[in-house]
Design brief:
This protein has 504 residues and is an alpha/beta fold. The protein is 39% helix and 11% strand. Helix 1 (27-38) links the parallel strand 1 (6-10) and strand 2 (43-45). The longest helix is centred in the middle third of the chain and has 27 residues, at 186-212.
């Protein structure tokens, strides 16, 4: 995929400052886009936007690949629409609330009370007068919205359970049972429709604001979905499930490697690719089409899984006893291309990458990823060193899965620091005044068509600013920056100067 030189910032919307403990699509989001424009950036990269469950991972614990996360809805904007009284909105406070962390245990009930109040007011208005925009949204998005909103209503009605533990006729989607349940839970279903309508209304306006300033949004499609999701409940034949229990018969992960002696066991059900092929990959076509309604470019997480994926029996407790299974390969992307036209896709090609995976990526000219934090632990042939790049790639100082540059530097061994110093042209690591800006400069000056910098690195944050540590399950996905005041004119101008210097 050819591209003009450009750069941008990696930041998930939950990381915006707000009065309610979690980032939303309100004033701080618009301030951030203004900062992007003022600093000469053309790209904003986000993580998946869907509603999250246990531990709030947008990749592994996502209730829908089509829906938006209601926690990102801006309450002030609901007040502007008349669904809330702005004077009654109370900031989230308390000793367990800190400015740079999302406390989901407190955020969820605090925001939910206002979302439900807004819905009550919306429902009263709807009873008096129809809402054409809401009706249009529900009609046009019914192909995924009907399943998701009933699923979400059922989740609320069956707390602490997964869908395969519901009444058998509901778990196995008997039409008459579903119809009766939808009627029984109609108010809860309507509430979920309202949340999705408001989320996508707010998101679409924010995206239009970004696009109007010449900024493209890079979205994210995680290859796998959560077992306890509307996607699996509504399409069980598309996944390898046990026919009796409807639990995953096989689950996804990656095999043992240098970083983990037992590999990584993600727990997501793997696809029955033969079934997907029989349908012309229609679920995937719908998934990409829906994603591209709300973003401009799509990063495919775990791209290598389309060439071959690591499949582990569902009863295993580690990823050790799995095997590589061929993926859908060329045919899959040819089908997407035939249905959707050009594919504005970026490939997450990190980890165990074979020549076959590289060939698949290159056949469709998808740019791969280069991570500077991976560049200095080897010799001059390290593929993450800038002198080994091709133009059609995207360079990061680090990603959401890495430590911040400053956190990485503080824990780096002396020999690695010396290699960094040598590469940057210093005699000693002690001469490097700001390692984060040294790597930012290295990324922007490289020949890579695109360069993405996590906001944490622009702010010079240590490992407290880390978004996710894949080696641990608890406590991730919580970082946010404290105030839009941190996006100072000095920071804006410094980034603008460097961006212009290197022609981005």
């Amino acid at each position: 995929m050819s591209s003009q030189r450009a750069s941008g910032i990696l930041l998930h919307p939950t990381s915006f400052p707000s009065r309610y403990g979690i980032g939303d699509l309100g004033r701080s989001a618009y301030d951030f886009i203004d900062f992007l424009e003022g600093s000469g950036q053309k790209l904003w990269q986000i993580l998946p936007l869907g509603p999250t469950g246990f531990e709030h991972s947008p990749y592994i614990m996502n209730f829908s690949t089509f829906a938006g996360n209601p926690l990102m809805i801006c309450l002030e904007k609901l007040a502007e629409e008349g669904w809330l009284d702005g004077a009654e909105l109370t900031p989230l406070a308390g000793e367990d609330i800190v400015a740079d962390r999302v406390n989901f245990d407190r955020v969820i009930p605090h925001k939910t009370q206002y979302l439900k109040k807004a819905f009550e007011n919306f429902q009263k208005a709807l009873a008096a007068n129809p809402n054409p925009e809401f009706e249009k949204f529900c009609r046009e998005q019914a192909w995924w919205l009907d399943d998701y909103t009933l699923f979400a209503a059922l989740l609320d009605a069956h707390p602490g359970t997964t869908w395969n533990q519901w009444e058998p006729e509901i778990a196995r989607r008997q039409p008459e049972a579903l119809k009766a349940k939808a009627e029984e839970l109609k108010d809860s279903v309507l509430y979920q429709q309202f949340l999705q309508f408001e989320f996508f209304e707010q998101w679409s306006k924010l995206r239009a604001y970004a696009n109007g300033k010449g900024i493209q949004i890079i979205g994210d499609v995680s290859i796998y979905v959560c077992h306890n999701s509307s996607d699996v409940w509504a399409n069980p034949a598309m996944f390898k499930l046990d026919p009796d229990t409807l639990e995953p018969a096989y689950i996804a992960g990656v095999p043992p490697d240098y970083f983990s002696a037992t590999g990584q066991l993600w727990g997501n059900p793997v696809y029955d690719w033969d079934k997907h092929k029989e349908t012309g990959y229609s679920w995937w076509v719908d998934r990409f089409r829906a994603t591209l309604l709300y973003v401009d470019l799509v990063r495919i997480d775990h791209f290598r899984g389309f060439e071959a994926y690591w499949e582990v029996p569902g009863t295993e407790e580690t990823a050790m006893n799995g095997e590589w299974i061929p993926g859908p390969n060329d045919e899959f992307f040819e089908t997407l291309k035939a249905k959707l036209g050009s594919l504005p896709v970026l490939a997450e090609d990190l980890g165990i990458i074979t020549p076959e995976v590289e060939a698949l990526r290159d056949r469709f000219e998808f740019p791969g990823m280069k991570i500077l934090l991976f560049a200095f632990g080897d010799d001059a042939n390290n593929p993450y060193l800038p002198h080994n790049y091709i133009q059609n790639c995207i360079v990061y100082t680090g990603t959401h899965d890495n430590d911040t540059t400053l956190g990485w530097w503080k824990s780096a061994p002396p020999e690695l620091k010396q290699r960094v110093a040598d590469y940057l042209g210093y005699d000693s690591p002690d001469e490097i005044a700001e390692i984060n800006w040294s790597l930012i400069r290295l990324a922007l000056s490289s020949i890579a068509d695109r360069a993405i910098i996590p906001l944490q690195d622009l702010l010079g944050l240590d490992n407290r600013g880390r978004m996710n540590d894949p080696s641990i399950n608890a406590g991730n996905w919580r970082w946010r920056y404290e105030s839009s005041d941190l996006l100072t004119p000095q920071l804006r101008d410094r980034l603008l100067k460097m961006t212009q210097l290197y022609g981005r």
